[in-house]
Amino acid sequence: MKNLLKNSVVVFVIIIVLLLIIPLPPFFMDVMIIINITLSMIILLISMNIREPLEFSIFPSLLLITTLLRLGLNVSSTRNILSHQGASGQVIKAFGDFVLQGNIVVGFIIFIIIVLMNFLVITKGTERVSEVAARFTLDAMPGKQMAIDADLSSGLINEQEAKTRRYKIQKEADFYGAMDGATKFVKGDAIMSLIIAAVNFIGGAVIGMVQATMPFSEVMTVYSIATVGDGLVSQIPSLLIATATGMIVTRAVSEGSLNEDVSAQFLAQPKAIMLTGAVMVVLMLVPGMPKIQLAVMAVVLVASGFHLERKVKQSAVREEMLEAAHAVEEASQAPSDEESYYRDVNNVYSLINVEPIEMEFGYSLIPLIDESSGGKMINRIVIFRRQYAQDMGFVIPSVRLRDSSSLNTNQYVIKIRGEEVTKGEILVDYYLALEPPTLSGEVDGIETVEPAYGIPSKWIRPENKEMAEIYGYTVIDPLSVMLTHLSETIKQHAYEMLGRQEVMQLLENVKKHSAELVDELIPSQFTYGNLQKILNNLLKEGVPIKDMETILDTIVDSIPVTRDIDVITENIRIALKRTITRMFCDGGQMKVLTLDADLEKNIISSMAKGEQGVYLALSPDVMQSVIGQMGEHIKKFSDLNQKPVVLTSQVVRLYFYRLIEQFYPNVYVLSFNEIANNIQIQAVGNITV
């Protein structure tokens, strides 16, 4: 039985094809016509009761099958009409007699009106809607895919739900594309019905008068009944299928079945119903209008509208009372419910979870983040995460975005591991204009400081944007200001987000092509914790960890000599010299600050070893002098379009970096061994004792 059901569609299609070849007796012709009408009615009712188009995803295939069925029946009925002097079953004769009712001219006019209505109104409109729906669905696919990626990246959905949503989007695109093509079958079927009707009538008339020598009046009666009846039994199912097609492709914004939506949306507008009743009363004043019918309709509409409005008000009052009662109940039960919830120790752990990266923002900034309001913040974060992974070899965790009533409306706060590290303020309706070194003109605005780099700036109105650019300002939109601040903060604190779990994921990625290297090192010779410390050291100074194979190879080579984490890190930096050079080299040149030889000797002689390792014991005067000189020399790099770099010997590099990092976190300290041999070094300043 199960196999029979599986193959029933195949058998049915084969029967349809045979209808085009094998003559069908009138009795079986009646059976097939009834099946055709029944199937069309079922399809129409299904299309009215589905909630979304994908619930009836086989519709394009059914459309082709039903169209082929009608064409097969048309061929069989035409064969019978022309071969048996207009006799092709009781259904066709009954439809023809019912429509003609003894008047051939009126009957034909009604038949032509039905055919043209199907062709020009239903079919043509359905074809256009299907075409537009298919195009809009395909155009919207990239945006929907990006929205899913953003939700996945921000933690709103899991991987399985994202996979389900992507599959649904693909199915929608395939469905509407198929519907766009399938509607052409409906259009062709309507045209074919007109041609077959003309063939039945003209061909039947010629055969009746020439071959059967029937009188002209009898020919007209017999073949007009057969033509109209055959056309109607074909056009009625075609009309039902075309209507179902239109309903399917127009269900894009529905939330329930057609019956539910119509009932809910009509009954939700009692005032419109009462106003329509009032219009009916006005129409009674027009001379010659049927007053009884209009009066009955007006009374029904006004009474129905009044009854519905009273129900709507009662329902609103009831909902308010229920909400109030529910709120009171929640307020009374909240303490006990919360107390019982936290009796379970496992539930208490949910209170101590800390987000790696978190961003809170005020109410006015919601339009920049909320996708439903056109915000693009999430999409931009996704793009930044991908680019950072490609550059640095580390995938930053999801950024938790949430609004906060404790902040000013234009303010935002960036937190790392649950603690605030920086904050800023954005004027949504303004642009931020960064002041250039030399101004050619002033523009009106609100004085401020760019939050990521501390550049003096102004918030300017949109109408002043072009003038500010002419004067040399760099103009940035509010979203880019906030995203730049977030991205720079993440870069500075990326090393804090690299934990054991992330290290294990990086190693799993390396195992895909260098499993022997990982197995040789971890965990037999080196622990996950020590590897994490090394990677943290590299990220902290902005060195990419993308080339994990080189990093692991260097660790393997260094272990026989030393297990000091700092020494191994310096060896890795030397191994990554090409990567480090590329980051700071511009056109084969690198502009740097250098240390005086006496200063380096002073630093080396002041190194002392304690419980926490080697540290510098410089005198306060020397430290103050070095920090002061650094501040003066760093200003030179603002005009060089290059990050500030200090070049030292390998022995001094690490300790000099630790000396200045708290004062100048954006200054990079490199050693001569970390610079490629083909690079020309140009000193723009020298730091002395």
TrEMBL record:
It is found in: Cell membrane. The chain crosses the membrane at residues 7-25, 31-49, 56-73, 98-121, 191-212, 232-254, 266-286. Keywords: Bacterial flagellum biogenesis, Bacterial flagellum protein export, Cell membrane, Cell projection, Cilium, Flagellum, Membrane, Protein transport, Transmembrane, Transmembrane helix, Transport. One of its GO terms (biological process) is protein secretion. Its main location: membrane. The keyword Cell membrane applies. It comes from the Bacteria. InterPro entries: FHIPEP_1 (IPR042194), FHIPEP_3 (IPR042193), FHIPEP_4 (IPR042196), FHIPEP_CS (IPR025505), FlhA (IPR006301), T3SS_FHIPEP (IPR001712). Required for formation of the rod structure of the flagellar apparatus. Together with FliI and FliH, may constitute the export apparatus of flagellin. This is Flagellar biosynthesis protein FlhA. It comes from Lacrimispora algidixylanolytica. The lineage of its organism: Bacteria, Bacillati, Bacillota, Clostridia, Lachnospirales.
